[in-house]
Amino acid sequence: MLYSYFVEKSIRQSFDHVNNHRWDAAVKALAPHVHHRVSGAHALGGERHDKEAVRRWFERLGRVLPTLHLTVNHIWVKGWPWHTTVFAQWDGTATLLNGDASYVNRGLHVFILRWGRVYALEEFYDSQAAAGGLGAQAAAGLEEAVTEQIVS
Predict the structure, then answer these.
(1) Hey, what CATH topology would domain 2-146 get?
(2) CA 121, CA 15: separation in Å to the nearest integer?
(3) What residue segments make up the domains of the chain, in order of their start?
(4) Fewer CB within 10 Å: N-end or C-end of the chain?
(5) Measured between alpha carbons, how far is 11 from 36 in angstroms, rounded to an integer?
(6) Contact in structure between 12 and 26 (CB atoms under 8 Å)
(7) What is the pLDDT of residue 1?
């Protein structure tokens, strides 16, 4: 289906924006009152309910894991333009400030779209691996890696 092709292309492009720290482009397709949730009791966890808070979250992601690279392995698109569900399975890698290049995380994003706008985004990944990586970043001097969650 042609619609699914364009949605998949858009989702892949959003991951590319994140990989290249293009935060304005990464949040462009978000609805003003988007719901963004990330599990885990760490600096990247929590829930946000507006586009600006999600933008601040992305900026923090770029500061606390500056070399993070997400590779999208599979994207599944289901639904019609007025209500689309997208699943994106990915692998993430990063080199931490202490020189450790073994940070790896695997995850799944679930997007809910309406007429091309993202109304909800939930991220499922190994929150213990994320917390461990953030702890290592903090031990190397990056205090923001263990600060309070950005919530709204």
Answers:
(1) Nuclear Transport Factor 2; Chain: A, (3.10.450)
(2) 13
(3) 2-146
(4) N
(5) 15
(6) no
(7) 77
